[in-house]
Amino acid sequence: MQEIGIEEGFLVLKTQNESNDIQHISKLIDSSYIQFHFCLKGRAIFHYNQGNYAIDIKEDEALLLYNPRRDLPINLEVNSKTWILSVVIPIKKFHALFSEEADYIHFLDQENIDKKYYGTKQINPAMSVVLSQMLNFNMHSAIERLYLKGKIYELLALYFNKPEDTDFEQCPFLADEDNVRRIRKAKDIVISRMSEPPSLQELADEIGLNLKRLKEGFKQVYGDSVYSFLFDYKMEYARKLLEAGTMNVNEVGLKVGYSTASHFIAAFKKKYGTTPKKYTMALN
């Protein structure tokens, strides 16, 4: 585990097990801190309470831990070929970041502020990009901490962001489990055929919903339109292929459905603000 101190009590921890063996890592963390753990690759297990309690974290999952009544030391079992990036922040500092929006984050409101909170969620494509940048940056040592501090704030904003018009409890459409199942099927279809996705009408016919219900339901479940969701998914998939280094830019573009390299390069730059070539050069 590589430890980088951003400022007093504010840490970034990088854990990369490239060996073929399981590694065990420990670090003392007391109850005054909130912990964020992001698994970029592989799988790991956090052990607590003398090994009597365990939390599993898998690839593309994030784990948030906070217990103001008990220390939560890191006792981590890291599988082979696993990468984890962790952010540890004093709860007072974290609360100050969101002091005006405490009600937006429910475990910070007055009713819950002294209660423990453990939660997992999926790492979305935007968070993946920031995490990759935090692992692979090439900065002068004099500004390394400033760069990481900015990226941590960006990561936290993305972690807690949610579509303002998504209200799962109030949406009558989502009360129907069959409708939700059909929308999830639609997502699986467009992902499996991302190189040649169906039209919205074809997709609606295939899952057995009318076009309006498909559009509204997809936005409610996934917080985005079908094709915006697919675009983000394709760019994230392409980014991971580029990082793997087994395909060139043309091959990656074809894999995600772009018949010409120029169209893929334009799409990638629109999403990430840089070209695929420059992105891979920055990684190296």
Provide an overview of this structure.
It is a single chain. Helix 2 runs antiparallel to helix 3, helix 4 crosses helix 5 and helix 4 crosses helix 6. Strand 1 and strand 2 form a beta hairpin. The strands form two sheets. This protein has a six-stranded antiparallel β-sheet with strand order 1-2-9-4-7-10. It is built from ten helices and ten strands. About 2% of the residues have low confidence. The chain is of the alpha+beta class and 284 residues long. It starts with a strand and ends with a helix.
- Cα Rg: 21 Å
Strand content: 15-25%
Q: Give the biggest beta sheet.
A: 6 strands, antiparallel
Mean pLDDT: 83
Estimate the global geometry from the Cα principal axes: globular
Helix percentage range: 40-55%
Low-confidence stretches: 165-170
Q: Kindly report the spatial arrangement of strands forming the biggest sheet.
A: 1-2-9-4-7-10
Strand element count: 10
Helix and strand pattern: EEEEEEEEEHEHHHHHHHHH
Q: Please report the distance between the alpha carbons of the first and last residues.
A: 21 Å
**Number of DSSP helices?**
10
Task: Explain the layout of strands and helices.
Layout: E1 2-7, E2 10-17, E3 23-27, E4 33-41, E5 43-48, E6 53-58, E7 61-66, E8 74-78, E9 82-90, H1 91-97, E10 117-122, H2 125-136, H3 144-160, H4 177-192, H5 200-207, H6 211-222, H7 226-244, H8 249-255, H9 261-272, H10 276-283
Antiparallel strand pairs: 1-2, 2-9, 3-8, 4-7, 4-9, 5-6, 5-8, 7-10
Helix pairs in contact: 2-3, 2-7, 4-5, 4-6, 5-6, 8-9
